[in-house]
Amino acid sequence: MSTPTGAPAPPGGPAVLAVAVEHARRGVRLQVALRWVLVAFVALTVVSVPPAHSVATCRVIAACYAVFALAVAVAVRRGGDRAVRLGWIALLGDLVVLAVLTLLTGVATPQSWTSDVVTTGFLLLPVLAATQLRPRVCAAVVIPTVVVYLIAGIATMAANQEPWSSLLLRTVIAGGVAAGCIGLSLIQRSRVAQIGRLVQTRGELLGELGDLEQRERSSLSEHLHDGALQYVLAARMDLEEARDSGDPEAFDRLDRALTETSRLLRSTVAELHPAVLAKAGLPAAVRELAATAGARGGFTAEVRADGWPADLRTTADPLLHRTARELLANVAEHAHARTAHVTLSFADGCARMVVADDGTGIGPDAADPGGGHIGLASHAVRIEAAGGRLRIGPGPDSGTVVAVDVPADPV
């Protein structure tokens, strides 16, 4: 696949491609602005340091170069996909103009300083080429520039009585500028690619997280329907039976149903607004999450918090609590695990949580936006935004181990 400008499509998809094309067009516009500096340089050189002969020819060349620069500027201003390609071709035109002027003023009119001044313009060509996001295009311009610079120097060396040492030193400097510009082109292309990948990730998250609220609502509805609502319906039936028969066992069943309903409702409310997090701390809140998830998924959940002081409250507690809820919900819904272990610790300003299960396991790319676990991907983004890191790996024998490290301050 290639871009509209003829360049190979950068990795990362349409979002990266759009960013790369836009930056390429900006580079061409900068190149147009710098070309006018070169046009002014050529014109001022011909006027202020004219050669002894062929003055009219040099002025015609300078005028034609100004017309050429104007034509390129107009074409670029109109935009379109051809603007970037035209920018590449225009660089070769710059090289041809400088080479012709250097040879014409250095060989035909050796008595003037014109060629010595014109050769300085060669050093601006690599800068023009560095505005391109394609390092190969940049190299295709700067390497011939250095070669032509050396050839022009050799052709005018006898007329100017310049020693080889001076010519070679000037060529080394020109080569250094050329290499630096290729390096700058590589750097800016890598930065644009990175920006494009971030744009793509942001777009994917925004698009996929649009359904997250609906999923949360559906999950809450299912939780209430399959849990508390069933106990309420059973309690109603037991109440009607108790009214008709006065059976003590009906009252006992009614009491158990209402008790279980209260427990499930408290659990649901705690998931939505974990008051226990502020009152009892993160370990207690995570234990409540683990107990609820274990009952829902049919596995044994254990929370270890030996490395977390009982009275500790940190700035990372809400983030870790939400992440623990997501991870334990994944264990309950997808892992088919028998056991799950949560470990909490805090040391040196870093809060750490590890959730391990012995279930079927998930892939290491589950936290990526395209990995299929949108909720987990959103939590990974939040953790990274807080300066932390979420890592997923296989368990020692089976299952999955998720480690979360987040910078945190005691509060």
UniProtKB/TrEMBL annotation:
Family annotation (SUPFAM superfamilies): ATPase domain of HSP90 chaperone/DNA topoisomerase II/histidine kinase
InterPro entries noted in UniProt: HATPase_C_sf, HATPase_dom, Sensor_HK_TwoCompSys
Catalytic reactions of this protein: ATP + protein L-histidine = ADP + protein N-phospho-L-histidine
UniProt-listed SMART domains: HATPase_c (SM00387)
Highest taxon in the source lineage: Bacteria
Keyword annotations of the record: Kinase, Membrane, Transferase, Transmembrane, Transmembrane helix, Two-component regulatory system
Biological classification of the source: Bacteria, Bacillati, Actinomycetota, Actinomycetes, Pseudonocardiales
CDD domains documented for this protein: HATPase_UhpB-NarQ-NarX-like
Transmembrane regions listed in the UniProt entry: 33-53, 59-76, 88-107, 113-130, 137-155, 167-187
EC number: 2.7.13.3
Enzyme's top EC category: transferase
Name of the protein: histidine kinase
GO terms of molecular function: kinase activity
Segments forming domain Histidine kinase/HSP90-like ATPase: 315-410
Pfam families hit by this protein: HATPase_c (PF02518)
Source species: Pseudonocardia lutea
Gene3D superfamilies per UniProt: Histidine kinase-like ATPase, C-terminal domain
